Amino acid sequence: MRIPEYLSSNFKIIRLDGTTYDMRECGILVKSFIVDSPSPVHSRETIEGRDGFIDMGTTYDGRTAHAELQLMSVDIPDFALFRNEVFRMFDSREYFYLICDAEPGKRWRFKYDSKYSIEQKAKSGTFSIDFISDSAYAESVGRTDTDPVDMDSDAWQAVGGGLVMDEDLIYKWSQSSFRIYNGGDAIVDPRQYELIIKFEGASSGLQIKNTTTGETFKYSKSTAAGDILTINGPRVLLNGVSSLRNSNRQLLRIVPGWNDIQISGTSGSFTITFGFRWLYL
To answer: Where would I find the Siphovirus-type tail component RIFT-related domain in this sequence (predicted)?
Structure first.
C-alpha cells in the first residue's frame, strides 16, 4: 500500500549491497523521524586546591535518532510477511544508510540500537525504532571525485548543504596551485573518514601541501608518466602496491571551507584528484 506523501516523514534505507527500500513504497508510514543533537564528550582535569576545572577539549560521541512507524499490509493473513520484510530492511548485523526525503543529499550510517515490536491491529501495526551510529555526522550522498558538485546533482543537498553559487567546485586539477572546497561542518581527517588523493604523472620528490593546515605529504620515490600514486587514508599505493615506506607518513586533512593546495616536484603534465564526502552536524 503506497502512503500519501503529505502524511509521511519518509526515508529510504540503502543496504551496503545497494538494495534500496523506500518506506512509502513498502507500505510503511513514517510518522516521525527525529535526529538527536550531537552528544559532547568533555575532557576535564582538576587540580587539588583549585576551584573549577581545566577544559582539555571536547569531542562528539556517536549519533542517535528515533523513528515512529506504522506498517500497513495488504490483508490480515499477509501481515507476518510484511513484518518479516521489515526485519530484513533494518537488519543490523551490518550498517545501512538512511536518507530522509527532507534532506535527500545527506545520508546517515545507522544500525538499530535495541529490539522493537510490531504490534498487529488488523492489517496494520505500529512500532518505534531507535537508531545509533558510530559517527557523529551525516555525510553527503555524493563524493567529490565521482559526482559533479553543483546544484543540479541529486547527490548533494541543495538547501543548507554547503554548496556555493559564486565559484565552480573542482576536485581534479592539472596545475601546481589550486583550492579544494569542503562544504561540510567538520574536518575530513583520513585517520577516521574517507579521503582519497590520486596523483597521476611523473615526479621526483613529490610534495603535496595543504597550506591552510600547514600539513605536507612527501614522496621520496620517483614516479613515471602513467604511474598512479594513491593516498587512501593511512595507505600509500603506487600502481596498487603499498609504498608507505617511501613517504613521510604525513596525512593531509581537509578543513571546512577553502583549502589552498600546492604541488611541487612534478615533471611534465599531471593530474591530481581529491575524493571525499562532506560531513554534517
So the answer is: 18-132
Burial class (CB in 10 A: 0-12, 13-18, 19+), 84: exposed
Question: What tens digit of pLDDT does each residue of 195-209 get?
Answer: 999 999 999 999 999
Using CA atoms of 241, 246, 251, 254 in order, give the dihedral in degrees to the nearest 10: -70
The pTM for the full model equals 0.91
pLDDT 10s digits, 111-158: 999 999 998 998 899 999 999 999 999 999 999 999 999 888 889 998
* Positions of E strands within the chain: 11-14, 20-22, 28-35, 40-45, 54-60, 63-72, 96-100, 106-112, 119-121, 124-133, 138-140, 172-173, 177-182, 195-210, 215-219, 228-232, 235-238, 241-242, 257-276, 279-280
Domains of the chain with bracketed CATH: 5-136 (2.40.30.200), 142-280 (no CATH)
Instruction: Give the Cα separation of 241 and 75 in Å (integer).
Output: 57
Q: Flag whether pLDDT at 3 surpasses 60.
A: no
Grid cell listed for 151:
546544484
